[in-house]
Amino acid sequence: MKIIHISDLHIGRKLNGYSLASDQKYILERIVSDVKAEKPDAVVIAGDVYDKSAPTAEAVKLLDKFLDELEDVPVMLISGNHDSADRLSFGSDRFRKSGLYIKGGFEGTPEPVTLSDEYGEVNFYLLPYTRVADINTVYNTEFTDYTEAFSYVIGKISPDTSKRNVMVAHQYVAGAELSESETSIGGIDCISADVFEIFDYTALGHIHRPQNVRGERIRYCGTPLKYSISEIGQDKSYSIIELGRKAPGESYCDINITRVPLEPERDIVEIKASFDELMTAGHDENGIVSEDFISVVLTDKVEVPDAVSYLRKPYPNILSVKRETEYSQDFSDELFSGGGTERDPLELFSEFYSLQHNGEEMEEKQSEILKKAIAEIWGDKNETA
Predict the structure, then answer these.
(1) Is 205 helix (H, G, I), strand (E, B) or coil?
(2) What CATH number is attached to the domain comprising 59?
(3) Same domain, 307 and 209
(4) Which residues, in sequence order, are bridge partners of residue 77?
(5) Is residue 347 part of a domain?
(6) Cβ neighbours of residue 199 closer than 8 Å, sequence gap 6 or more
(7) Is residue 328 part of a domain?
(8) Domain shared by 251 and 130, yes or no
(9) Looking at the DSSP assignment, which residues form a beta bridge with residue 121?
(10) What is the DSSP string of 147-191?
(11) pLDDT tens-digit profile of 274-287?
(12) Distance between CA atoms of 37 and 333, rounded to whole angstroms?
């Protein structure tokens, strides 16, 4: 059975105030095109479908169009921590009849969605984003530990291990590598991977970096787009999972996982260069160098006043501008105390400048400006220094 695993679409997301509507439309159209070419048996969307619990009309229309174009393949969709369970669940009973299976909120032991292929049945268990409090409310329990609570829920499921079983969940599983844009509440919401080892495959959402957790059978597919500067350098993708035969007496079926790269319409990149290099870079007829989302690191030795205003024309989607500075922390007491003697301010500042700039000396123009400033501050007091 062939499954396409995607998650964390975050439809409606903005990046430093910039709308990502066109970027998300572009990447979802790419996924639809691939689905039609691959002809999978199912598409799994593992939570955080929207970026906000109250999505905009534009975001709702984009999801509606995306799901409508997947009408020829069963789609299994769960809510994430960014979604409103109630809003996402609207019409779910009717949608099931057309092959769209939505699980918005935790209501107790999930019933499987069962599909079949030449090797028999595959049971999909849809577990939306769930807190310990949700489990305690449904089962009248008093769990405080996430692993214990989810172990209890999986025990209630008690899947038939002679068949192939797939879990779809949106949680933080121990061992996953977080990005700066993701948070774990002091680790208390962390679930041991042991909880999911009974399943032939666990399709996870919640973590933006694609990765396996304790082997390929427990996997985060990651986001289809970069959603923060901290994700610069990450290669985005979706996953194709192929579940083969499960031999009698075997714990798991055969499995093959392919990671399919996704190229964005506009990337998030870091550019490190001087102000002049950035301003004189090759541009189009409109003066645009790049439409990508840019994090600029200026290598200039001196501050460039209002650099972002000048850079915004050739780089209209600037996210941040900062100056590259490497400060040495190896300051000796003698630099500041002068070994008990009064020191020449020009000499003192020159040494300080050199320490701050990896041994480089001030330029002549800088030195002249400093001399003038010292003369204005100290006057005659510094003439004999």
Answers:
(1) strand
(2) 3.60.21.10
(3) no
(4) 45, 102
(5) yes
(6) 125, 159, 165, 166, 167, 217
(7) no
(8) yes
(9) 116
(10) HHHHHHHHHHH---TTSEEEEEEESEETTPPPPTT---STTTTEE
(11) 999 999 998 888 88
(12) 69
Q: How far apart are CA 292 and CA 212, in angstroms?
A: 29
Whether residues 278 and 149 share a domain: the answer is: no
Confidence band, pLDDT 50/70/90 cuts, at residue 331: very low
State both tokens at 15: 């990046």
- Is 83 in contact with 206 (CB distance < 8 Å)? no
Of the listed ranges 13-22, 258-267, 376-385, the one predicted with least confidence:
376-385
Task: Please tell me the number of Cα atoms within 13 Å of 34 on its side-chain side.
Answer: 22
| pLDDT range class, residue 263, cuts 50, 70, 90 | very high
Average pLDDT in the chain = 89
pTM for this entry? 0.83
Which of these, 164, 224, 243, 231, lies nearest to 199 by C-alpha position?
Answer: 164
Other Cβ atoms within 10 Å of 176 Cβ, number: 23
Given 217, 234, 261, the domain boundary residue is: 261
Torsion sign, CA atoms 185, 170, 166, 218: negative
Helix (H) or strand (E) holding 35: helix 21-38
Provide the number of structural domains found in the chain.
Answer: 3
Q: Do residues 7 and 152 both lie within one domain?
A: yes
Residue 327 is predicted with a pLDDT of: 47
Helix 57-68 and helix 21-38, axial crossing angle in degrees, nearest 10? 10
Per-residue pLDDT, 125? 98
Given a cut of 90, is residue 333 above it in pLDDT? Answer: no
In this predicted model, what pLDDT tens digit does every residue of 154-188 receive, in sequence order? 999 999 999 999 999 999 999 998 866 565 554 67
Q: Are residues 100 and 207 in the same domain?
A: yes
Reported residue count of the chain is: 385
Range of the structural domain that residue 318 is part of:
268-323
How far is it, in rounded angstroms, from Cα 127 to Cα 109? 9
- The last residue of one of the domains, among 236, 261, 286, is 261
